[in-house]
Amino acid sequence: MSFTIVIPARFSSTRLPGKPLLLINGKPMIQHVVEQALKSDAEQVIVATDDEKIMTAVKDFGGEVCMTSSEHVSGTDRIQEVATIYGLSDDHIVVNVQGDEPCIPPAVINQVAHNLHQHKQAAAATLSEAITSTEEFLNPNAVKVIADQQKMALYFSRAPIPFPRADWVKNNSLDGLRLGAESVASANILPQRHIGIYAYRVSLLHEFVKWSPAPLEQTESLEQLRILYNGKKIHVEEACEQVPGGVDTQQDLDRVRAAYI
Q: Does 184 fall in a domain?
């Protein structure tokens, strides 16, 4: 099985302008992402950008970069343009690695690609990890996912799902929801946080860019719901390794920088 990694990288960021070029241990963040990606089994790692400064930086450290349109509204649209430029076949697998994940484990990149390859009924694959705190369960920035017994996604939401009704009735408050070991064991369900790494078949990318944004997607502000809304399947599995958080804020950047000291 072969697959390609595409890393969308934009210069503009509301909270951290120029994020891909911010230095971590003397290297731009995008270089760390590429280096982690190159440790995977991918046959090719491509940075997709619309910014000349990012293109120059990637070339300077010997990475492969593809200039794409500045009109794209999402990373998925940008990845589809790369697939078209490179003439990738419809059944080829492309893994979307976020450009702000400098510590992403290569093992989870391989995992999501291999999962998609093994599940022909799925058009995409992604990963999750267990939620063990009430705070994270209630946090709308932590996207939750539930799947069926074949590990196909049923829904993604910013709301707390699956909703533990018995705890709600007992406590009459979301603050009282119990997600400790006792509650989890009795329900035999551990809520899952979605991890934002995807593997796509190129055929899905070509369909995706033709679909209008779905009502559910717009309501939740979750692009992956467009895939489910159009009847396609997304395979979901718990990540084989813990995935460190990405870099969205200065605090995140400080945390990652500290890890290299």
A: yes
Residues 254 and 236 in one domain: no
**Side-chain half-sphere exposure of 241, counting CA atoms within 13 A:** 13
Same domain, 159 and 90: no
- The widest CA-to-CA distance across the chain, in whole angstroms, is 60
For residue 86, give the H/E element and its range: none
CA R_g for the chain: 19
The model's pTM: 0.91
Lowest pLDDT segment from 111-125, 129-143, 216-230, 237-251: 129-143
Using alpha carbons, select from 67, 62, 92, 96 the residue that is nearest to residue 81. 67
Tallying the residues shown for the chain, one arrives at 261
Return the exposure string of 60-76: e unless at least 16 CB atoms fall within 10 Å of the residue's CB, then b: eeebebbbbeeebeebb
